[in-house]
């Protein structure tokens, strides 16, 4: 018999992780890039334990979770009354190994609105399973979040995109999933979500429209696009031939994250908004001295931090209004 979700479970309250009829102990785990496998599964009970660990140490009860991309960690620095948890101090949590990812879960207020924020994410190329990379999204859900804002740094493949532009993600191509690599690979625990979740509305159309309006209000309509993102395995940047191929297939921006987080979020019914900061232009010609590099990615994030903070703050305000309206 399938077990029931505890009533009121997903409301950010601290709950007992012992689910009726399931008293299996939580195996201690210390995930590290070198020990992860493609089926590195965090159980329902472990996710509850992690969420409870956090909720017991903060009074913030967020409805909105934010993931900061490479060089975009400053978003978390704008939180007030912040409670910050280094990943290495959270039981069973992986650690960030990439420059530009501080490696902290930060709870706090963004312009008076409660949020939780991953200041640094996990990538497949770090050696973590995709399910491990996106595990914190489930933790957000169990901390009470109903909405996810995923941000990333990406290479602009669409030739009309410039460095520093924002691309609102309207869709993705899950190329890693084409090869069978999914964060949902393995046995499905229906308490997280269904075996076969749909993805045709992965990026919430209402939130896309709100973001487009915010961009106009900020006078950024010429620097804002709405396009298709692809997550590649990395860590090597793309060859010219690869980029030409993705361009033909309708990709606008190229990165190494986000897609598995969004799939996990939709699986557990979080509403998703995602955007890319275009940190570099993809190099699609052979005759050039330029080369993609991570320093440029971080530098662009830093240069655009005020604009991005303003953009995300306005998104959070709008999402919060939707949440309040929905609850009335
Ligand atoms: O975490 P994100 O997706 O923002 O980081 C991008 C992808 C790689 O991790 C890195 C390459 O420069 O930036
Ligand atoms: O050009 C890129 N390619 C892949 N990932 C990236 N993340 C930032 N820029 C890029």
Automatic annotation (TrEMBL):
GO terms for biological process: nucleoside metabolic process. Residues 63-317 form the Nucleoside phosphorylase domain. It is an enzyme of class 2 (transferase). Pfam families: PNP_UDP_1. It catalyses: inosine + phosphate = alpha-D-ribose 1-phosphate + hypoxanthine; 2'-deoxyinosine + phosphate = 2-deoxy-alpha-D-ribose 1-phosphate + hypoxanthine; 2'-deoxyguanosine + phosphate = 2-deoxy-alpha-D-ribose 1-phosphate + guanine; guanosine + phosphate = alpha-D-ribose 1-phosphate + guanine. Gene3D superfamilies: Nucleoside phosphorylase domain. InterPro entries: Nucleoside_phosphorylase_d, Nucleoside_phosphorylase_sf, Pur_Nuc_Pase_Ino/Guo-sp, Purine_phosphorylase. The keyword Ribosomal protein does not apply. Keywords: Glycosyltransferase, Transferase. A purine D-ribonucleoside binds at residues 238, 280. The purine nucleoside phosphorylases catalyze the phosphorolytic breakdown of the N-glycosidic bond in the beta-(deoxy)ribonucleoside molecules, with the formation of the corresponding free purine bases and pentose-1-phosphate. Belongs to the PNP/MTAP phosphorylase family. NCBIfam families: PNPH, PNPH-PUNA-XAPA, PRK08202.1. This is Purine nucleoside phosphorylase. It comes from Polypedilum vanderplanki (Sleeping chironomid midge).
């Amino acid at each position: 018999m399938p077990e029931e979700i505890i009533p009121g479970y997903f409301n950010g309250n601290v709950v007992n992780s012992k689910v009726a009829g399931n008293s299996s102990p939580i195996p201690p785990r210390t995930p590290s890039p070198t020990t992860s496998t493609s089926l590195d599964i965090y159980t329902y009970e472990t996710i509850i334990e992690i969420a409870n660990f956090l909720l017991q140490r903060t009074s913030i009860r967020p409805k909105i979770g934010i993931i900061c991309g490479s060089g975009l960690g400053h978003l978390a620095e704008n939180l007030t009354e912040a409670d910050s948890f280094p990943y290495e101090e959270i039981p069973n949590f992986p650690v960030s190994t990439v420059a530009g990812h501080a490696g902290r879960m930060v709870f706090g207020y963004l312009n008076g609105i409660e949020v939780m924020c991953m200041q640094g994410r996990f990538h497949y190329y770090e050696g973590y399973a995709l399910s491990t990379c996106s595990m914190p999204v489930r933790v957000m859900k169990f901390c009470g979040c109903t909405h996810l804002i995923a941000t990333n740094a990406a290479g602009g493949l669409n030739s009309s995109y410039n460095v520093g532009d924002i691309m609102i993600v309207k869709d993705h191509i899950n190329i890693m999933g084409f090869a069978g690599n999914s964060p949902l690979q393995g046995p499905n625990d229906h308490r997280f979500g269904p075996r076969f979740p749909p993805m045709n509305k992965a990026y919430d159309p209402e939130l896309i429209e709100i973001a487009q309006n915010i961009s106009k209000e900020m006078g950024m309509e010429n620097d804002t696009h709405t396009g298709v993102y692809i997550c590649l395995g990395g860590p090597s940047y793309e060859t010219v031939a690869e980029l030409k191929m993705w361009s033909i297939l309708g990709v606008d921006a190229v990165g190494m994250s986000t897609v598995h987080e969004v799939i996990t979020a939709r699986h557990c019914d979080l509403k998703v908004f995602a955007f890319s900061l275009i940190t570099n232009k993809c190099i699609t010609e052979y005759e050039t001295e330029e080369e993609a590099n991570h320093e440029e990615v971080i530098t662009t994030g830093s240069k655009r931090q005020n604009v991005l903070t303003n953009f995300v703050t306005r998104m959070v305000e709008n999402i919060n209004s939707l949440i309040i309206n929905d609850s009335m």
